[in-house]
Design a protein that fits this description.
Largest sheet: 5 strands, mixed
Strand content: 25-35%
Order of helices and strands: EEEEEEHEHH
Helix content: 40-55%
CATH topology of the largest domain: S16 Ribosomal Protein, Chain: A
CATH superfamily of the largest domain: Ribosomal protein S16
Strand order of the largest sheet: 6-5-4-3-7
Structural class: alpha+beta
CATH architecture of the largest domain: 2-Layer Sandwich
Radius of gyration: 25 Å
Number of domains: 2
């Protein structure tokens, strides 16, 4: 049982149940300039409401030397061991943090290459189908 004191109110959170504690993003920043805190919170609280602990930051529009992602992996793993469930986006950020930036860039490049190859194959198939249709229409006219 974890006791939290916030604004002179006491909250008792049962950490043993995996359905009660989540690791998720909390949006901050200005309009069209998002900035997120990675937080551990009770599932019942609003995403912008009370939280138990801040375990990282995520800046999706970081440029230059700005920090894009910083996570306290030890704390996150401790919360996961207690049953906290990370959100889908946090799972992806954890994977990025564990793999490193080079692996993430390589995965993005591979995905791009596959998409380009798929578009090229689709264009070739369409051109082949059009050529066959043109040949069959010429044969029907003759």
């Amino acid at each position: 049982m974890l006791t939290i004191f916030l604004d002179c109110q006491i909250f008792l959170i049962n950490i043993g149940t995996s359905e009660m504690v989540v690791i998720r993003l909390r949006r901050l920043g200005a309009k069209k300039r998002p900035f997120y805190h990675v937080i551990v919170a009770d599932k019942r609280f609003a995403a912008s409401g009370r939280f138990i602990e801040q375990v990282g930051i995520y800046n999706p529009i970081a440029q230059g030397k700005e920090i894009r992602l910083r996570l306290d992996l030890e704390s996150i793993n401790a919360w996961k061991a207690k049953g906290a469930q990370p959100s889908d986006r946090v799972k992806r950020l954890l994977w990025e943090a564990e793999q490193g930036e080079e692996a993430v860039l390589k995965a993005k490049a591979d995905k791009h290459e596959k998409a380009v190859a798929a578009r090229k194959a689709a264009a070739e198939a369409k051109a082949k189908a059009e050529a066959e249709a043109a040949e069959s229409s010429e044969a029907a006219e003759a």
